[in-house]
Write a structure and sequence with these properties.
The protein is an alpha/beta fold. The protein is built from 19 helices and five strands.
Length: about 425
Amino acid sequence: MNYTETMIKNIDYLLNIEKLNIPIYQRPYEWSRENILELLSDINTAIEKQKQFGNDFRYRIGTIILHKNQENNDYKLDIVDGQQRIISLLLLKKYLDKDFKCNLLEIKFNNKITISNISQNYKYIEDYFVFRQDLKQSFINAFTNLLEVVIIKVCDISEAFQLFDSQNSKGKDLEALDLLKAYHLRKMDNENGKRKKNIIKAWNKNKSGKEDKIEELFNIYLFPIYNWSRRIKIKNENFTKDDIDIYKGIDIDSNYSYAKRAKKADGCFQITESFISGDSFFEMVNYYINLLNEIKEKLNGQKYSYITYILSKYGDTYQLKYVKDLFYCAILFYYDRFNNLNEEVVRKLFVWSFMLRTDLKFVQKNSINKYAIGEYCWNHTNQIPIFEKIKYARTEEEIANIEIKTENQNKNTDNNKKWEKLHNDLKKLIK
C-alpha cells in the first residue's frame, strides 16, 4: 500500500488537524455511558502510571485512519476508522476547555442517534468530574503529554478501507456488517462519489432508528436461510465476522464459470446464490428489506386472515417469536424462488412452523435450528427439511404437495394442554 503518511501524535494534535471530516458513510455515533466510563477510567489509570514511571511514559489509545479526499482544488481528511473515539475525546476536550475550537465542532449532525448520544455523553462527563475536580488539570495535561494515537493518512480510498478491514478483523470485535460494508465499498473504488454517497445514505437509514433493519435481515433471515437450505445448523447465535466470507460475493474480474453466470444475472438475486461484489451487495440488502416488507403486507390481507387471527388470539409474544420468525423465513425463501404466494403453500408453511410451538414445552433457538433442517426429534410432529426442499424444488406444486402432519402420539401431555387451542386452530387449516 502507498500511505501518504504515518505518524504517532498526541490527542491535541489529532483534534486540531485541519480539514478533519466525518464522511457521510460513517455509522452514527453510538458510544454509550459505559464506553465513556471505560475511556475515562483508562485515562485515569494512565495518569497514575505516568506518575509511577516518569514523564516519558505514554499511553496509546489506538489507530486513526484518514483518507485524503480530494475534491476539485480542495480536500478533506475523512475519518475512515476511529470516529467513535475521536468524538468522545472531543467531548472530553470541550468539557475541560470551554474555549477550545476546531473544525470538527462546526459539523452539524443530523442523525438522531448521534445527537442523542453526544448530549448524553457530554452530560455524563460533566457528572463524572463533579466530585473529581482535582483530576481536571491532569486530564488537560494528558491531551498533550500522555495520550497518543497512530495516525495513518491514505490517498486511495480503497487502501483506506482495506486498512480498516484488516485493523478490525483482528483485535476489537467490530460488527460483521460494518466489515462487509467496508469490503464492498472498497470494491466500488471505480464508482463515482455520488453513487457511493447515496448507497451509504440508504445503508445508514436502514441501520438507524428503533429497528436495525440490516442486522435483522442477516440475523433472522438471510444467514439462517442460507445455512438451513444446506441442512447446516447455525453455530453462533447471530451472524458474526467469522461468517462474512459468505457475503463477500464474486470479484468482477473473476473468470470462473460460475462467476460469468453471476455477471449475466447481476441485479437478479437469490438468497442461496452469490452475487458480484461491490454495489450489488448494497442492492441485494435493499432488495430483501423491501421484499420482506412486501411479503408481510400481503400476508396482512383478508386472504390470510387466519395468520393475524392466530397471532392476535395467542398474543404476538416471546413464546411465539421463534416460530413466527421461522414462518417468515420459510415464506421469504419460497417467494424468493417462485415469486408467488400460493395460498396452499402459505397455509402449510404456517402450520408447519407453528406446530413446533404445540410440540415443545420450551422453544429456543436450538429447537428452531433442528426443526428447520429436519433433524429427527422424537417429539416433533413433522420431520421435514423444508428449506432444503424449497431450494431444490422445480415447481411450487412440489411444496404445495408436502404432507404436513398435525397429530403426534409422542407429544408431552402437559404441554399439549397448554397449547391445545392453538393446536386445534392449526388442525382446521389442514384440509
